[in-house]
């Protein structure tokens, strides 16, 4: 609203899907917005994901079943979970918190809060995609979770029970139904769970670029700026300190993804954020065709997704921090399995990529008002749901700054949940 009498200058730190979505909604509300991009265009984790708007994904990463599986996964050379030995001491407190969040009572609480937040995710994407003329990138593709064996499918019973309680619609497919849905998939899967209501992004890089370009044309300043600290005066943030100098503002939003922890700490918030390093490779098929929908091969934790005319394969979660060199063998070793699933795939990856998921041990993002500076707001830690929940997070943060949304209503995501 251009005539907003409470117009403020809001400085958003971070130019991924979360930061740009915050900027979109803040600008829409009539505020002056500056976005500080510390990574450079198209280097954020938002562009390298599988493109799934995973509105059915209300089950936390930590469950009793996960805890039982972790020891074996760490000892298995082919496991999708890797912890570099040098990082074990640093990640141990995070893993302990995840274990505590994996109790059945906590899983139920976390699932309920995630389900409530996910209800607005698709409409938030549609609002942004229509505004930036990117609606054709948001596809009603559905999302397919496939299982090699009946035993593997049986192990998903707990997930299916949670989804049923949360009224998340899904369809169970047998081998024939899977082949009928997408003949590109080899007949090696015995069962599948199909989420018809899920959408996907045809090209995350293009989506983010179009949103960024739209904002700059609307007068939002998106400028290079790696924030190292904040200027604090009388308990309030007054400027973000960058290598280019201070950037003053009335309100500040920390949406720097995996780089948010230290920035939040400087504003009085001690949040247990860590990084799940995620890899992808881009593959083409011999026919030039792609899959009908994103596919999660559940038994092997491999996602195969139709992205930008190719198939993007994501696999492996690695705990090694932000500075360790990439280990692309973690994703390349999945290639023989991917060729089993999609025989048309070529054997040589077009490209390889490493990104950093900002992840919380309770699978719940940090969304809300800073503890130490009341004019600062936190919006990070979405883990595997960053693309899914970015636009909805932007709507919430803008509403909290304007006072139309009460932070206490989103207590499950508040920074203060770690104060005790």
Name given to the CATH homologous superfamily of the largest domain: D-Amino Acid Oxidase, subunit A, domain 2
Number of helical stretches of at least 4 residues: 13
What is the CATH architecture descriptor of the largest domain?
2-Layer Sandwich
- Biggest sheet statistics: 9 strands, mixed
- Mean pLDDT value: 95
Tally of strands: 21
Global structural class: alpha/beta
What is the CA-atom radius of gyration, in angstroms? 21 Å
Unreliable runs: none
What's the number of domains?
2
Q: What fraction of residues sit in β-strands? A: 25-35%
CATH-defined fold name of the largest domain: D-Amino Acid Oxidase, Chain A, domain 2
Distance between the termini: 40 Å
CATH class of the largest domain, named Alpha Beta
* Oligomer description: single chain
Helicity range of the residues?
25-40%
Q: What global shape is seen?
A: globular
Any overview of this molecule?
- The protein is of the alpha/beta class.
- The protein folds into two domains: 9-46 and 206-273 and 363-418, FAD/NAD(P)-binding domain, CATH 3.50.50.60; 55-203 and 275-357, 2-Layer Sandwich (D-Amino Acid Oxidase, Chain A, domain 2), CATH 3.30.9.
- It is 32% helix and 26% strand.
- It has helices spanning 17-28, 64-75, 88-100, 104-118, 121-131, 150-154, 157-165, 175-181, 204-217, 260-266, 329-332, 335-341, 386-402; strands spanning 9-13, 32-37, 52-53, 81-83, 138-139, 143-147, 171-174, 191-195, 199-201, 221-224, 227-233, 236-242, 245-248, 251-254, 274-283, 295-297, 302-307, 310-319, 351-359, 366-369, 376-380.
- The strands form four sheets. Strands 4, 6, 7, 8, 15, 16, 17, 18 and 19 form a nine-stranded mixed sheet that branches. A six-stranded mixed sheet has the order 10-2-1-14-21-20, with helices on both faces. It has a three-stranded antiparallel sheet with strand order 3-9-5.
- Strand 11 (227-233) and strand 12 (236-242) form a beta hairpin.
- Helix 1 packs parallel to helix 9, helix 1 (17-28) packs parallel to helix 13 and helix 5 packs across helix 13.
- The longest helix is centred in the last third of the chain and has 17 residues, at 386-402.
- The two termini are 40 Å apart.
- The mean pLDDT is 95.
